[in-house]
Fold:
Amino acid sequence: MGGTMHGLLTVLALWCLVINTRGISACIAMERDALAAFNASISDPDGRLRSWQGESCCSWGGVSCSKKSGHVVKLDLGEYSLKGEINPSLAGLTRLVHLNMSHGDFGGVPIPEFICSFKMLRYLDLSHAGFGGTAPQQLGNLSRLSYLDLGSFGGPAITVDNFHWVSKLTSLRYLDLSWLYLASSVNWLQAVNMLPLLEVLHLNDASLPSTDLNSLSHVNFTSLKLLHLKSNNLNSSLPNWISKLSALSDLDMTSCGLSGTIPDELGKLTSLRIIKLGDNNLKGAIPRSSSRLCNLVEIDFSGNSLSGDIAEAAKSMFPCMKRLQTLDLAGNNFIGNLSDWLEGMESLRVLDLSGNSLSGVVPDNIGNLSSLTYLDISFNTFNGTLSELHFANLSRLETLDLASNSMKIAFKQSWVPPFHLTKLGLHACLVGPQFPTWLQSQTRIKMIDLGSAGIRGELPGWIWNFSSSITSLDMSANSITGKLPASLEQLKMLAALNLKRNRFEGTIPDLPTSIQLLDISENHLSGSLPQYFGDKELHYLLLSHNILSGAIPEDLCNMVSMEVIDLSNNNLSEKLPNCWLTNSNLYVIDFSSNNLWGEIPSTMGSLNSLISLHLGKNNLSGMLPTSLQSCSRLMLLDLGENNVSGNIPKWIGDSLQTLVVLSLSSNQLFGEIPEELSQLHALQFLDLANNKLSGPVPSFMGNLTALHRGSPYWETPSSLEFMVHGVGSAYVSVYIDTLQTMIKGRKYTFNSEVRYLFNVIDLSANQLTGEIPSEVGFLSALKVLNLSRNHIRGSIPDKLGSVVDLEALDLSWNNLSGLIPHSLTSLTELGLLDLSYNHLLGMIICQTLDGDIFFDSANLSGSPLSAMCVPESNKHQLRFDTLTYLFTLLGFAFGFSAVSTTIICSMAARKAYFQFTDRLLNKLCTAVETKFSINRMSAGRDPSLAIWSQDSMTCYELERPSTATI
Ligand SMILES: *[C@@H]1O[C@H](CO)[C@@H](O)[C@H](O)[C@H]1NC(C)=O
Ligand SMILES: *[C@@H]1O[C@H](CO)[C@@H](O)[C@H](O)[C@H]1NC(C)=O
Ligand SMILES: *[C@@H]1O[C@H](CO)[C@@H](O)[C@H](O)[C@H]1NC(C)=O
Ligand SMILES: *[C@@H]1O[C@H](CO)[C@@H](O)[C@H](O)[C@H]1NC(C)=O
Structure:
């Protein structure tokens, strides 16, 4: 009744209006005023509201009125790029049914509450509009809403404190709350369950709290067709109720923290077209019931721990997979081979089986998958020979990645392939010794990885100009000889060039302006460094282990894009340039092992993002510049083997509190070791050996908490940081920060190329006095302690027996006296013990595989005493933890405005290494990928998951002492 009355009044009002405005098409004055006020306060940089002129607001752009009532019912300003303030006058549009303000830029303000007063609203799109703050609860009053999109990628995030209001929107069919902050919405699932009409649900990357998906006893949202919950750590198993969603056609639960198995019920989802369960912890086999999923177009189970024989899974699963276009099982534990199951998948475009344990030979019939554009079987254990036959019909192939298999690639030299690749990965396949001639036909190629491919001899000349689209070229770790061309400027897209570990001679070529990564380390390059880098945006400059000479060019100081410079192990001379500018990208400088002289440049203090500074093994002199205390993110400082003089500055302890490695050995430092160093709570490697330090052995050593067992640093010396840079190319590269060092002392040396050694204190060859402080007993995680060649007196503290991880102990050449404490027998990891040249008495028990061995050293005071025992468990490699920075640059080959990302993570290198080849990189990439999925959307399938530079891990062993006397 009220409604009729209202309607009648409206008609009357409208009639009056028509009379008053004489012939101008109907527009209710109040609503026109409301729109005009809105127009007045909004900023419209693209001029999209230019049509908002005159009285007839119903004809203004984006405005629609009801033909019957004349009221504004639709305001569609999506893609209008509006900015600034939304005038609350808009509340006057009381009959609004459809409101779209997406893709505006409202500067992080909360969603205006007046929007909640539009009782008639059925469609509300405020996505990607830069709203922030907390979502108003009153949105729950919009009970007619059938479409709600608040998803907003990047920029401010809208927080939802209490999800309850969503449950009141019972007419909803479409809900997108992706990228909102829903961490406190513990009841989100129950709320969604009140929406029986829901067909589409997007909750990607919304910080959803841990949720047991199985906690729903009854599902209401059985009309669901699309369910996207990507990138939320739900910490759940796949719910059984999923089988009730019989209309479901698109399921994306990538990176959701799912564990358990894929339930057999999956087979009931016969409408399913797309299923993505990648990057979870799913185990077990692919359920047989999936044989009923005959509509599947895309399967992504990558990055899980799924297992079983792939051929068996295929036989049950793939018979009706005629429509399947994408099969991604990368990064799982599947075994088996490719025989007999590829037939019949004639629609297949993307096949990614990389990073499994598949074996056997690749069958010829892979050549029948004529729709294939993307084939990645890298990181498996396939063997046998691949010939032209395998590729006879693969004319659409664009990506071919066979890396890290024991396959011989034997194409005829004269072969002209039917395909035109954009990406080729043959890393660690047997390609050589000849360079593959067929590559010359691949004129569209962008990325080539021929690292470790057994190529010998000189390169053919055409390699440097057959394809102008090359962005990334990796020929590292081959035995390629000859000179590099004088210029590579013709490769106008080249962003990454990795020629590491070959035998290239000659000078560094002129580089194209597109270059971002240059790695020609471990070659025989000579001559000087380029003096000018022009407008290049180099990120990585890696030229270590060559015979480059001359000065370090000043132009390097100006390269603000630079992230890592490694010029170590060359013959560079002259003074270090003192022109460094504030640079927030530079993480690593390694100038060690050259002939640089002069003072450490004070401007290096402006490099406040520096994590690692290697200046060791040069002839640098003078004092440490105090400006270095601004480098407060330093984790490694190596100035060993120079002529640096003065005291150890106190500010190292006060300002460089993130230091993990501090090496000042073999310099001219004197004075006491400052107490401030005790504040270095992350320090795990302290080498002050071979200086002129005096004073007592510092008791504050006991306060180095990173060397306490169970300290957070001790377990995981890792910090993971993401840095984003907008660059327009594609490559993945890994840079491993290494520290070359020797632990001083007569009895033990480590291999010259040592990765980060952890848990070491070396104060040997100084003039330290006093006794060994009993606080050393707190350092329960210490592995190497060297106090030899000082003037230490007193007895060995009993407490040393609590340093249970100790693997090497050198106290030789001091004035120690008394009995060797019995507690040392509890040091079961001890591989090397040197107590010689003291005045000690006693007996040492050393445990080996064959039982205890007694070294009777009674009455040998004054004469050499040393013992060597290597427990069986330690024989192959001592358990030194190592730190690696893994720098991974990810880029996207397609699209020019792509984002590339640097990941810096420091972690136990060995762990990283062993995981690296299977899933670590995958995980990292996926992590980045999901963060930047917007770019991916336009980028198409990510072509960058290849490893463009791989280093081998050097393990090190204690050298047995040659003069052990027992
Ligand atoms: C809307 O704003 C533009 C620019 O500020 C102005 O030219 C135009 O007259 C305004 N229209 C109305 C109806 O107020
Ligand atoms: C299903 O939805 C209806 C209506 O929205 C609601 O009343 C009911 O409680 C819901 N059932 C469950 C189990 O949540
Ligand atoms: C491939 O490896 C399998 C074992 O996995 C072995 O039996 C077979 O002989 C190998 N084939 C070739 C051609 O090397
Ligand atoms: C070392 O730690 C102890 C106990 O926490 C504290 O009393 C002492 O002052 C610390 N020493 C130094 C030099 O920081």
Observations:
- The radius of gyration is 34 Å.
- The first strand starts at residue 42 and ends at 43.
